[in-house]
Amino acid sequence: IRLACPEFDVVGLAVPGVPGIAHFGHTGRVAWAITNAMADYQDLYRERLRRTGPDGERVEALGPDGWRPAERHVETIE
Q1: Which residues pair with 32 in a beta bridge?
Q2: What whole-number distance in Å separates Cα of residue 78 and Cα of residue 67?
Q3: How far from 32 is each of 23, 29, 76, CA to CA, in Å?
Q4: pTM score, whole prediction
């Protein structure tokens, strides 16, 4: 959207129901953006896994107390 008058000339993204150009816009000399418009809902985990046993059928995970067995199951989708 563009909003122009003798005092202002603004171009940016408008959200229906929100007055003006609140999230992303620029005037030619100044620009702005809101980067945290939504809450963070993702977590990142770093896991170290290893396979053990004669055929590698057991899985162990490294934790604060060392290597421990991890749950594992196989699903077949036909």
Answers
A1: 25
A2: 34
A3: 7, 11, 50
A4: 0.40
Express each pLDDT in 2-48 by its tens digit.
989 998 899 998 888 888 888 889 998 899 888 765 666 778 888 99
Distance between CA atoms of residues 65 and 67, nearest Å? 7
- φ/ψ region of 2 (left if φ > 0, alpha if ψ in -120 to 50, else beta) reads beta
6 vs 67: CA distance, rounded Å: 69
Burial of 60 from C-beta contacts in 10 A (0-12 / 13-18 / 19+): middle
How is the chain split into domains, by residue range?
Answer: 2-33
